[in-house]
């Protein structure tokens, strides 16, 4: 029974923090940002040079990944440690 309660608490914590929404947003941006930056830089920045446009797309993908990692580390809150119960406190 306690395993079910613990699983429910984990799901409630994840839903409260918006973890799933954040994952969906970063997944979409991981596809859109490199493609958008490739074609935009190909046309407007590098004047048709595909190598520089590809490098720009790689940098954009890495920026999205690094941002996701940093935000997930900042979201990780330290849990409050409880003192173990002694026999007298039960």
From TrEMBL:
It comes from the Eukaryota. InterPro entries: Vma21. This is Vacuolar ATPase assembly integral membrane protein vma21. Pfam families: VMA21. The chain crosses the membrane at residues 20-39, 51-74. Keywords: Cytoplasmic vesicle, Endoplasmic reticulum, Membrane, Transmembrane, Transmembrane helix.
């Amino acid at each position: 029974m306690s395993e079910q309660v613990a699983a429910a608490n984990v799901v409630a914590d994840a839903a409260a923090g918006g973890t799933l929404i954040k994952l969906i947003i970063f997944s979409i941006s991981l596809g859109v940002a490199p493609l958008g930056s490739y074609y935009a830089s190909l046309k407007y920045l590098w004047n048709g040079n595909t190598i520089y446009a590809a490098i720009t797309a790689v940098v954009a993908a890495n920026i999205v990944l690094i941002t996701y990692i940093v935000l997930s580390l900042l979201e990780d809150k330290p849990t409050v440690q409880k003192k173990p119960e002694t026999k007298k406190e039960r």
